[in-house]
């Protein structure tokens, strides 16, 4: 097994268990002691995990973007519920942007019920799922592929998006508070911002675990979204800020 696949497997296991002993991790991965130690050190150096007293646990550093397959397992039930709400915004003969997030990917199965859709995405995994649905015209940006994330990023990807205007941009974020929406990556912020500028409407899909959090890169103010789809009602302060910004809240 290649190193990047081993590291992804370790993160997948921690995504389910959050904290686990080295002995249990060795039994689950079937890695040798020396291989597991090296991989744990690699993930520690990337600030993705913490290893102490024989225990390994996940560290959610704000400036770290975890692999797509790992992110897909987080809050999966909530993401599916949000996608069910979001599908009501879809209609026949529409053009839409889908970002590369695991949250937005849950919307893809509902696209099969619509006719003559044009979908533009910077998500490699999302494009692969779209490829299995007949009747959808899919455009995948070029750009630099970020290993593990399945995201195509950079100026080349953003420039490609300017060939389109769409009815809706379906996006997610890594954090939000009364001042706006945030991302852990400058490149992710840039391409999502381009999608927002080229869409008539922006629907932000953000689960409640991201409420009242910030990150290093601000995506936009709350006014940048027309609708917030989430899994439960925000607290009073955040709810009031969203309403003041004329953002529709659905959950």
Description:
With 251 residues, the protein is of the alpha/beta class. It has 11 helices and 15 strands. It has 2 domains: 3-59, Winged helix-like DNA-binding domain superfamily/Winged helix DNA-binding domain (Arc Repressor Mutant, subunit A, Orthogonal Bundle); 69-250, Rossmann fold (3-Layer(aba) Sandwich), CATH 3.40.50.1360. Strands 6-5-4-9-12-14-15 form a 7-stranded parallel β-sheet, sandwiched between helices. Helix 1 (3-17) packs across helix 3 (33-45) and helix 9 runs parallel beside helix 10. InterPro entries: Carb_Metab_HTH_regulators (IPR050313), DeoR-like_C (IPR014036), DeoR_HTH (IPR001034), NagB/RpiA_transferase-like (IPR037171), Tscrpt_reg_HTH_DeoR_CS (IPR018356), WH_DNA-bd_sf (IPR036390).
Short recap of the structure:
Repressor of the lactose catabolism operon. Galactose-6-phosphate is the inducer. The protein is of the alpha/beta class. It has helices at 3-17, 22-29, 33-45, 68-73, 76-86, 102-105, 108-111, 124-130, 155-161, 186-198, 236-244, and strands at 19-21, 49-52, 55-58, 95-98, 117-121, 136-140, 144-146, 151-153, 166-171, 175-177, 180-183, 199-205, 217-220, 227-229, 248-250.
SSE succession: HEHHEEHHEHHEHEEEHEEEHEEEHE
Q: What is the CATH top level name of the largest domain?
A: Alpha Beta
Major β-sheet, in short? 7 strands, parallel
> Do you know the CATH architecture of the largest domain?
3-Layer(aba) Sandwich
Strand order of the largest sheet: 6-5-4-9-12-14-15
Structural class: alpha/beta
**Uncertain runs:** none
Question: How many distinct helices?
Answer: 11
Strand content: 15-25%
